[in-house]
Write a structure and sequence with these properties.
The complex is a heterodimer.
Chain A (H helix, E strand, L loop, with lengths): L1 H69 L13 E7 L2 E9 L6 E10 L2 E12 L8 E10 L15 H23 L6 H7 L29 H12 L5 H11 L3 H5 L41 H24 L4 H17 L5 H20 L2
Antiparallel strand pairs in A: 1-2, 2-3, 3-4, 4-5
Chain B lengths: L10 H55 L3 E4 L5 E2 L2 E4 L5 E12 L6 E12 L10 E16 L2 E10 L2 E10 L11
Antiparallel strand pairs in B: 1-3, 2-6, 3-4, 4-5, 5-6, 6-7, 7-8
The chains are: A alpha+beta, B alpha+beta.
Amino acid sequence: MKGAVGVNRSVNKGMATYMVIVLIAFVALSLSNVTILNRGEMGQIVKSEALIKADLAARALYQKFSWRLKCLAFEDRPCKNSAYSEQFDFEGVKCELLCYDSEDEAESLDIWILAKSDDASRAIFYRVKYQQSLVNSYNKITPSYSAFYNIDEFPSNKTSPKTPQKILDALKNMRENLKNKSAIVKSLENTNNINQILQALNAPADPAILNQIPKTTDGQQRLVNVAPPNRQNADLLTLNALKKTDNSMLLANATSIAGNAEIVDAPPPEPPAGGAAGPNQPALGQGGGGAVGQGGGGGAPNKPAPYGQRVAAWARAGIANLAFGVKRFFGTATDEDRDRANSATSNYLAVSKPNSFSAMAAKKYNEIINNNYSKSGK
Amino acid sequence: MRKYTNCGFSTIELILSLMIFSLVVTGFYGVMQLSAAAGKSSLKDKVELQKNTRRAQMKLIDEISCASEVVKPEIGSSAPFLVLVDKEGRIGVYYQKEHVYRLDDDKTEVRGYKLFSVTKNPTTGAVSQEKEIAGNIKRLIFTTMSEGSVTVNLKLFANREETDLVTQVTLKNYYAGEFIH
């Protein structure tokens, strides 16, 4: 009898163990499925954001350095006797700058900027020229050539660096081509038909090439503004009126390309509604509600933050609210805990997708705990 | 004498309950696999589309930003093509050709476009081969906002998923021609 009861107990334990094992295996399989499905997406988004960050940091560093060059005479340039090299850290992006005199042009500097952000890196080469200006306090530093290159082409010799021959050849070709392009470009001025343009260039024209903007059935014409946005308007006026001779034009342009995210990333403001037009007309149309701008991070207002940022904010809000709730349960909650939980919740709501389930749940939970806390008077 | 209590499970009951439980779990797992597979194909399309969109975006930015001058469309105009003078002073033309895409189900055909480019060297007169830049385009419009910037309005698709992108590109080499006389 004792033996029979003992057998029954061990069988029941065995079944419970079996059920627990099966349940754990089931949950593990579900989690691994979801993880595998999402892994590629996260990696790809992280990589492209790192690349855009590196690009922005490199451009900002160029602007910072060119300002420095503007304030120094050519004889006082930092790379006068030997190549100048410096390292910077912009918001987690490690940048390296290398500047030296150009070997094939007078009063000209070659600048390399290498920016490394997480796994992504960008190497940009600039050739800048010094020009005398009417306003003698500042030089006129203008990039006459800039291009992205592989990070392997960044000169390894920092004391006497040499510009790679292929870049020197490209610069030589550029000078030749820019002298000769005017005649061809002038011949294209009188036509807006792509096939005629290609024929003028002696390139093979094909009737299948798209010449008109296709109409879509989704009702969004996504056409041009009547006039460029105000910021560009100001630049345009400045550029046209003060072209080639005035530093203020350079200042305006430098401001606009110095990683100023509001200009580069934001889509143009909504123009007045109107009909569609062909490619040649300054057209009226509904502006595009776009997503990503050149900087990659900004975009249309109220766009939710990247997935990683939302998850991090959600985790912080969850932990802060949970800690506040538990402390409230044990009666040890303080005003600091409440403020911490409220601030974490509002940070999450600022980056979450509007009207999402998790945002509403976080808000509701935070409200309940706050009410509970204030009612208890503690 | 010890009283014998009728508690516990008999072997047959245990075996039967284990069998039923295994059937339930297998059925549940099968349903989960089906829904994961359905979600996976849609998610796979989304991931593929995001990847292609970012690749197309970076490629366009790299090519257009290195240019020194936009020839067509004129300032304030839009066009489905772009003519510019690139960083090496060559004249580049970006244009679209219609292409019929077949979706994964092999039955549905969708009309889309592909973006190509050719360049002409004004010194030697040589014209390069046509090069494909991007595909799976639903709609692509270039708008010249000012002398030194172009907005690219791009709509890509992959199977039944679509994504929109508006990118403003500033020309880095805008002043390149300034020193050429």
